[in-house]
Amino acid sequence: MSPDDLVPHLPGHAVDTITAFLSSHCLNHGNEGAIVGLSGGVDSALVARLARDALGAEKVLGVSMPDASYPGDLARETDQYARSLEIEYRSLGIEQIESAFGSTLPEITDRVTVGNTKARIRMALLYSLAREKRRVVVGTGNKSELLLGYFTKYGDGGADLLPIGDLYKTEVWELSAQLHLPRSIRERPPTAGLWAGQTDEEELGLPYPQLDRILRGFERGISEEEIAVRTGQPLERVRQYAQRIVTHRHKRRTPPIPKIGERTLGVDWDP
């Protein structure tokens, strides 16, 4: 097996599978469409496009939620992109909500905590709109982020659906190119936008093309030692990513419940 066997490649059935997935979940049980938070990044742009194609533009609501540090040119580009999809679109500034939170808890100054709070504010807005408009909250997390816990619990990780959750970041780029998403969106350095200057790859320690090869090795059940050899990464670094997957497992699961009754939700009962 050559090192390139660890490079994720987008399956040919990906779009059809995601389209069927979105249609079945967003247009049943009284649901009338999807709502997608638009950050200006490639993940949310791709999800909005896939939802538009699967459901029709009239059944997709895109929402941007900028704060004071959100660049004006990015806000304009996000607005333009949403309008190019011809979906319903709203921009909701979150500065006042952030300010109220800061006034209530002025002792909270750690930038990660503050950043996580922004993500939870945004998700609260999406769910409020979703209930009023009978929409399903469609998340934008990809497989790389989900594995590494690189998302905010009950923030951007708190969606109803994750249509690109089985696509590595490099596969997201591949599909975005296939669908001809704007080059400016595809080539923008990935960022969660939780504070000025923050980038995914700086926080995660490796560019996504290198990181995804390690994660793909884990998926295929290859030993850490062999992954290190095939990727050219230090064994200690490979082990750190393996440990991170375990450490952040709680983010991918429902809250644990102690076994007390005859049958317990999440333990031996899944009604």
SSE order: HEHEHEHHEHHHHHHH
- Provide the helix percentage: 40-55%
User: How many domains, in number, for the residues?
Assistant: 1
**Which structural category do the helix and sheet elements fall into?**
mainly alpha
Counted beta strands = 4
- Uncertain spans: none
Can you give the mean pLDDT?
A: 94
CATH topology: Rossmann fold
Strand content: 5-15%
Rounded to an integer, what's the Rg over CA atoms? 19 Å
Shape descriptor = globular
Please give the order of strands in the largest beta sheet. 3-2-1-4
What about the largest sheet?
Answer: 4 strands, parallel
| SS field, number of helical segments | 12
- Distance between termini? 43 Å
Going by CATH, the homologous superfamily would be HUPs
* Name of the level-1 CATH class: Alpha Beta
CATH architecture descriptor name: 3-Layer(aba) Sandwich
Question: In words, what does this structure look like?
Answer:
- The chain is 49% helix and 6% strand.
- It starts with 13 loop residues before the first helix and ends in a 24-residue tail after the last helix.
- The protein has helices at 14-26, 42-55, 72-85, 95-104, 111-133, 143-148, 169-178, 183-186, 200-204, 208-219, 224-231, 235-247, and strands spanning 34-37, 60-64, 88-91, 136-137.
- Helix 1 packs across helix 2 (42-55) and helix 11 packs across helix 12.
- A four-stranded parallel sheet has the order 3-2-1-4, sandwiched between helices.
- With 271 residues, the protein is mainly α.
- The protein has a single domain, classed as Rossmann fold (3-Layer(aba) Sandwich), CATH 3.40.50.
- The chain is built from twelve helices and four strands; from the N terminus they run H-E-H-E-H-E-H-H-E-H-H-H-H-H-H-H.
